Every structure is written in structure tokens, then in C-alpha cells.
Amino acid sequence: MISLKRMTVCVVLGAILLGSATAVAESKLQEQIDKDEVIWTWRGFPVIDMDDHWAKRLFQWGISQNIINGYSDHSFKPDQAITEAEFLKMLYRAMGKAIPNANVSANRIYRSSESWTEGPYRIAKQYNHPTAGENNFAMRMSAITKVRAAEIISASQGVHYNGQDAIIYLMGHGLSNGEANLPEQFDAAGTFSRAEALQWIRQLAIHGNLKIYERPKVPTDLSLLPNTNDIAVKVIPDFSIEPVTAEDFNLFILDDFPNLKFGDTKSSIDERFGKSTEKTIFNSNMYPLFTAHFNQHGELDGWKTESDDYDFHYRVNLLHTNKGIVLGKSTLSDILTRYGTAGVSKQGIIEYYYKKMEDGTFQNISIYDPIKDIENVYTINFIVDYKTQVVNYIFVTSLKATLDY
Q: Which H or E run includes 333?
């Protein structure tokens, strides 16, 4: 007889065992116990009535990062025109600001002093971001135009441009989320949907632009804008993937050092790199170039390396992945080119998940979807500095080791 036990857990994906600063993802695991065998199933991030919608994965990502939440009826209304207040809430949440949910009844009337919209508008005022609804409650609940959204996004990047100039700024920096390369093709006066707005924010994440800045009080010099004749259209897919092999889970070391291979025994690693005498709070062994975790059989099932202040010059340009991502040198752009954009989680956090198939190959999977058995699921993760966009943290692990079951 198979017994089922359901529980809600707070899981630091890919990080409990190795001490990453990655975001906590709250979801549900199902524990299935059959005799002495325990099988864990990841339930993912379901979205109601969006199975066939083009933006399903966008909303799963937005939910996982607490960027967006549903309405009181649990729907997400992806095709509904987004209001200015909703857009601000989504944008600022993506940038790490805590804002209450907008789960309110459409028939409920709020005074401005008690509205959920006060939070995002206080942030907009604090950072001098332009809004139509600061002193006009009705405008908060009106559909935002694309040009207003462009002004807000550009303002969040620390520049002060209005109208067409804000549009040109977004186009020149690849943040316009479309194929238009001229301002007149932008449909400035048009509105857009909640799904399209979330896609704009996804593009900010992919470009590493989710750090919030204050808009200068004085308009920014127009000469700093790109020439419209030089703007090249380049639409980056929201969730692209690149294939990996077993070699991609290994750590490569330059010079005369041997490489670190997933599945290596602790004794062989001690022999090559010197015996580890210290452990982290996550029960991982510390070596000069990396930290390693071993399963109950003494086999490597997770490792991390980072370029902190203490040993940065010692490790920089020395350690790299199979795809050539070099610690302390490669950038966010390098990661996305070689692994795909699907791994972008939030500002500076990039996480990829793969399932090992019966033939030994690895298949890219979405952590937002249900995973029937996480026994053979592995993750490759990076953290990049938000200022320089340079990789300062790499870790690889199995989900089994992460959940420590």
C-alpha cells in the first residue's frame, strides 16, 4: 500500500547545502512512501486557466519571484490591460521592494489613504519616478500607456527622459521588448496587457537591469541618447535553452591542477587537492579552490566556488565551467549566450535545472512545472555582481542533495 503525505516547505533551491544567496522559492512537495522508498515530487507553480496561454511560463516566473499575484477569484487575467498601479507594483516587486497584494474586489471602493496602491506610489515618489496617479486616484486604476511605462522604466535606470526620448532610451538599450527600431513604430499611446507588461520586466531581468535608481531632477543630456539610425532590433527570447552534457557539471581548473568531476570520491579529491579539515554550516568540505559536498557513499554531489574579497586574486581566471564561464571574468551576457535565458531568476541570480535521462543525456526542465521525481534532477547556478555583471559565484548540485533527504 502506498501512503501519501503532503506538506508545504520553504526550499532554498540549489542552495541549502552550499550556502547560496539565491531566493527562497515557496511551493509544495509531495512525499510518496512505498515501503522503505521515499519519492519526492516537486509541484511547481501552477497558474489557473493558463495552460495554453503564450505567457504561462512568464506568469510562473512572476509568481515564483513574488512579482505578480492573482485576483481574489484566483485568476491572473493575462490579457487584461494593465493599470498604472499594477505596473508599478510589478516593477518595484521585481526590483526587490515589498508591496502588499492587490487582491481586492473590483466592487470595493477605497479611499486613497487605505488603498493597496499607496505602497507603489510612495516608492515612485521616493525615487522621483513619473506617474499620472500620484495625486489622481482614478488614474491609478486606468490602463497605463506604453510611453508612460517607458518613462517609468527609464527613470528606474537613473535617467530623466520624457516621451519619445524615453522610448529611444529603451530601444537603444534593448529594453523595449519588441521589434520596433524607430519611435514611431512603438505605439506610444497604446496600452498593453498584464502579460506584455510582465514580459517587459522579464527583459529587464535578462539584461541585469532590476536595480532601482532615482530619477535625476534635471533632464538627462539628450546627446547621451543613441542615434535612432544605429538602433538594431534584437529580441532576446524570454526562456531560451542551450543543451548540456555530463561534462557541464564538472569544475575545470587551469594550469597543472586536475579537474573536479561530479561523482568523484572524497578520498580521490583529498589526494589531489589536499585533505579537507574544515566544514561549512551546510556540512560541506572546504578546499582551497572550492567547497564540496559528498553523499552517503562519499561521492561528490555538489560543489561551489566564489571570488570573495579574501581570495579573489587567487581564484580569478583560474576556475571555469565546461562552457567556458570563468570565475571573476565572464559576465551575465556570457552565461545567457552559452546556457540560455531560461535560467534568469532575479537580479544577479541565474539557475538552470536538468533531468538526467535513462540514456545518460541531460534534458533542460522548468522548475516552474511539476517534476514527478527529483531523484535525477541537477542544477547549475551562477551569481553575478549587479554593478559589474561579472560572475562571482558558481555552484552545481543535485536537488536530492539540496533537499537533504
A: helix 332-339
